[in-house]
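Still learning. Any example?
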Amino acid sequence: MPDLAGFLAAMELEPEGERAWRAANMDNPGPVVFGGQILAQTLVAAHLSVPDQTVKSLHTVFARAAAVERPLDIAVEAMSTGRSFSSLTVTISQGDRLCARSLVLTERDAEDLIRHAPEPPEGGPEAATATAGGDGGATSWWETRTVDGVDISDPEAVGPPRLGVWMRFPGAGPDPRRGQALAAYASDGFLIGTALRPHPGFGQSLAHVEFNTTVLTHTLSFHEPFGADEWVLLDQEAPYAGRGRSYGRAHVWTADGRLVASFVQDAMIRAFPPTPPNPPA
């Protein structure tokens, strides 16, 4: 199963040329690379390409699954670089197989001219229900607590398409760039399960078992810096599901009520294709 050391090792990109890197994969119980790892490595590549700026936003299209047993090739193209903003294209592939491509906007800090944000949700991590770990296993590297004890893995735990998850990565330290990478990793894991909540018999534990799911696109926007080891709330909702798709969105809040990030996701949720009949003997 994944752990913090494995995550940090996967974020150590090996240079392969100008704005090009080779990346290892985290341990994964399945055959494909978790999309959150790709999002986090995209952020790292952007920071390495423009080290005096931080990532403001990224929009990723997952074109094909990446095989977990093969390393990833990461290539960055600078569309523009400026004093205030830079725009990058980050492509992740395995050999000739293009797996994901992202548009990334980086920025330098600026002073407030105006400022506002919505009120944060009520309640903190101490009022939420501890779970076995964000990776679904019995590890403690990714500590998660769900608001109101919601269990998206239970196919019969029906409720509205909303999910609050408090999370932190103990031992990850206060580095805000690492905080971005870990939040990107975690943000990929819950919105499909949120979309399944109103539908009995469709818990997240049945994905890839009784029906097929995959993330199609994922967009992250960062608003404020935050530490990698502090509690943050993923306040998520999936207002639409239909036509074999789902749409979800979320705000990310710190325990002291700061809105630090937002993300949206389009995903596929559909039945497995019918099994062709056996040919006649």
